[in-house]
Each structure stands twice: as structure tokens, then as C-alpha cells.
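pls ignore typos typing on phone
cobalt (II) ion + seq
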Amino acid sequence: MKLPVVVYPDKRLKLISTEVTEFDADLHEFLDNMYDTMIESNGIGLAAIQVAIQKRILILCIPNEEGEQHYEDLLEIINPVLSNEQGSIVYQEGCLSVPSFYEDIERHEKVTLDYQDRHGKAQRLEAEGLLCVAIQHELDHLDGKLFIEKLSYIRRKKFEKEYKKLQKSKKKEAS
Ligand code: QAP
Ligand code: CO
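k done
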């Protein structure tokens, strides 16, 4: 089931998410709904707060070389912790909660991620490239941070102006 996506400037996107302690059927159903929401919205990553659930949960499904997303490549990441951050990489990021805006953002090039899967089992992965960028982007959501906060003052001003204009035209379209 697709869930409604919370969009900027909704204040809920600023909330700090809390640890997951129960790995039960409700969690599994929520993860499945997050997947439907991400795929139907043409996303590659989604954090729980983007569908108004304040829990430390994110999902990622990085497309293959052909640009296809496969369920087998889905990562369900719960209570994540980053370490061994190395190097730097610039990547053009977007966000389902900031529709139709994309900008170059600097991140670490390599990270190690410890997390729990849907059964509460401890997992570790080493990431680089797009996966590494996406992990850092989604982890920021768990601490109430958006990629637009990394923009320079000038670019942020430009974003706010363009985004407001776009939201206005979207409202008109809908009415
Ligand atoms: C985060 O973002 C990300 O504006 C995931 O109209 C992005 O899935 C990590 C999307 C880039 C690493 C690199 C955005 C879909 C999807 C939009 C997304 C839109 C439709 C964003
Ligand atoms: Co995002």
C-alpha cells in the first residue's frame, strides 16, 4: 500500500527519529508499505519520517547498470550506525520530500554501516558510490536533516524562491 509522502517545508521532517525495539509483524507490514511508496514514487531511497513515522528505519533500492530496480537488491536498514567515513564525493541528489529539485552535494566516498534487518539481526555493510551517498542522505533524515541544508547561502536562497514558485503552480494545478 502506498503511503502519503511528507513534503518540505513540513516541520515533521525536522524530527529526530527513535530506535526500533520491536521486530514484529507490524514492522514488516510497514516496511512493505515503505517499499510500495518508494517504488510508486520513483524513488531509490526512503526514510520512515518521510511517511510520518518517527522511527530509525530507512530503505534503499539502488538501480543496476540497466537502470532497473530489483526487489532482491532492497536493503531494509533499522537502527543504523555509520563508521570509517573516508574520502569525499560530489553527487547530484534529490529527495521525494523536496520534489523536482536536484543539486550537487558533497558526502563521504566510503562508509561502514552497522544496522539491524527486519528480524532484528545485526548486519554490516561497506558502501561506496551511489549506495554510499544514498545511505548518508537517508541517515540524515533520521536526525531531521535535509540535503538542502548543505547548500551554500546563495544556492539555498535560490532554492527557496524556485521551490515556492513551483509549489504555488502545483497548488493551482490541483485546484
Ligand atoms: C535519495 O532520493 C538520494 O524530486 C533518494 O520528482 C538521491 O529517491 C540518494 C525523486 C540521490 C542519493 C542520490 C525525487 C523522485 C526521488 C524527485 C530519491 C522527484 C521524483 C528521490
Ligand atoms: Co530524502
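The two ends are 26 Å apart (CA to CA). The first helix runs from residue 25 to 40. more later
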